[in-house]
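User:
I study polymers; will you set down one protein's sequence and backbone structure tokens?

Assistant:
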Amino acid sequence: MSWFDVGLLAGLYSAVTAAVVAVGLGYFFIWSYLGLRLLKQTRSRPSSAGPSTLLDGWHVFVLVPCLNEERVIGATVRSLVTAGARRVLVIDDASDDATGSIAEQAGGTDVQVVRRELPDARKGKGPALNRGLAVARAEVAQQNLDPDRVIICVMDADGRLSADALSNVLPLFDDPRVGGVQVAVQIRRTGRLITRMQDFEFWGLSAISQFGRRSSATVSLGGNGQFTRLSALLSLSEEPWGSCMTEDLELALDLLQAGWRLDTTPQAWVTQQAVERYRPLIRQRARWFQGHMSCVRHLPGIWRSRKLDALAVLELTLYLGVPWVLVLPWSLMFHVGIVQSFATYDREGLSLLGSDGGVRVVAAVVLYLISFGPILTAGYLYYQRCFGTASHIGFLKAIALAHLLILWNYVAYFACWLALLRLTRRRQVWDKTARSVELPASRPRPALTAPDPSGEKATGVANK
């Protein structure tokens, strides 16, 4: 290979690296800024409180798909009944344990167990949700309820809604254009590093960007704490959830292309258990990545849609491209950059003394802020959210944890490449997330509010 060819390849590599970094930083900072602005706006006005909203003609049906969830389903059902749901439908997907009977005992007349049997059962979350929706639709028809005023909530078997969550979520549906609402996720019991990092990731990265995506009305739906208007679901199909490994993301894309808006609020959230070992965690994330990567097939429809404005199309394009444009390329470029740094190491290059020492110090600080800016921002936001709660963490510790995201990224790297391998082999692996018994119950936590510039403790209602 000639010198010219080497130089051309080096220049191309530098350009691609710069593009990846620019897209990643731009996407993070823009949506984080918009998310932080929403938090500040939310703090300036009181949250909806009390159960009065539930009396205003809304009817909430909760779908809880389950497979061998006897360890957690009882507490979840009790919390949902207390929250004010009209009906809790536990879809028992051919469990081998006592999931169904425990759910019935915990919820009494307010819960209905929908039993699915093999060979139709255990074919993914989407088919289970469609079965539960069919039961809800039958009751809606029997009671002659207005589908526009019926909300379908999807919860995981270990999910717990925050106090007054429904009172803060339901008013968002007063806008007839809103077809779905997704609340933020928190992790219960963050005593170990692996569980703390998952909570950090869900809030410092995911939740803040979700709040920012409210500006484009393209909030992504998740599998836990998902609220959708029944009429919006029926506008798609009688079976709106597909067989995609991320049926929640696919539902969001279908709703957006059908002209519905998706919203969120910092004043309600859902808590869930963490994955407590790294191998199952990587398998879980590989499943998420595989579903996310397969949803790229929706891009042509998004680009052609006349019901999405330019901002929504741009945001969805960037979001669906994250695994392909950011995670996979950066997992390679990051290590190439490390190798290049060692290969071109020069002792004098590390000297911050001498005539140009001041310039080198400034250059080092600028490089540090550019490289670590996103994680420093995430650390600050996470510190603010945890301030004064049961999971309180000091500022310096939060910043230290933020730097650990550099290593935590390897979970995403391994999971994304595993997902790509499964995609090329056309394999769908439905790894079930293991649960643990929680005794005693988790302590309440204050509401998510904007950072208090004075440093005083934020106030709010309590219970991911």
In short: The radius of gyration is 23 Å. The first strand starts at residue 59 and ends at 66.
